[in-house]
Design a protein that fits this description.
Rossmann fold, alpha/beta, six-stranded parallel β-sheet, about 15% strand, elongated, Arc Repressor Mutant, subunit A
């Protein structure tokens, strides 16, 4: 029996997946949650074979939850997403995620992916893989990405400086450089571009 945990903040989708996967004779959902922190806690408690994690899920993102699970629990992780942004696949695979599927995947196909990954294989949806191969390389430095990531969370320059242990002027310089590289009119527009490309 393949034991599964599902983490998705969209209750209708999560409960539908749970109900449909439980109809499969060799699959059982042992727990479910609507956030990444609980996904990690439940994975540590139940030690499932597979954790199915929504990429866009509070309080952080699915990749962060996946990294914690992979590093400390050892369960295999499949990311599901509604928005397959270019660049996200590379981040996910670098983190050790075993599968990457869109939410439009039929449950029968998802069940087959789960079985394949439980058997030691990896799976990436072909359309997501094609988009990732065509994606532009990120022109931003790690520090520029850090400042844009916090900008995307509506943090002020002062808060970013305090959190990253930088001077406010240094933060403004990073943001200005990122804006110039991305040809963005504001730091928030630059953060949106970086997010759309899956760089943050």
């Amino acid at each position: 029996m393949i034991r599964i945990i599902i983490a998705d903040d969209e209750e209708l989708i999560r409960t539908a997946i749970v109900a449909l996967l439980d109809l499969e004779e060799d699959l059982t959902v042992v727990a479910q949650t609507d956030n990444g922190d609980d996904a990690y806690t439940l994975a540590a408690e139940h030690k499932p074979d597979i954790v199915l994690v929504d990429l866009e899920m509070p309080p952080t993102d699915g990749i962060y939850a996946a990294e914690r699970i992979l590093a400390n629990v050892g369960s295999k992780v499949i990311l599901i997403t509604r928005h397959a942004r270019p660049g996200v696949l590379k981040r996910a695979l670098a983190s050790g995620v075993a599968g990457f599927v869109p939410k439009s995947t039929p449950v029968s196909a998802l069940a087959a992916v789960i079985r394949s990954i439980a058997a030691g294989k990896r799976y990436v949806d072909p359309n997501i893989a094609a988009a990732a191969l065509a994606a532009d390389r990120c022109p931003l430095t790690p520090r520029e990405l850090d400042t844009l990531r916090m900008t995307k969370q509506n943090a002020s320059v002062q808060h970013i400086a305090h959190t990253l242990h930088l001077a406010e002027g240094t933060v403004r310089n990073y943001l200005s450089t990122a804006m110039a590289k991305l040809d963005a009119p504001s730091r928030h527009a630059a953060a949106d571009i970086a997010w759309e490309n899956g760089w943050i």
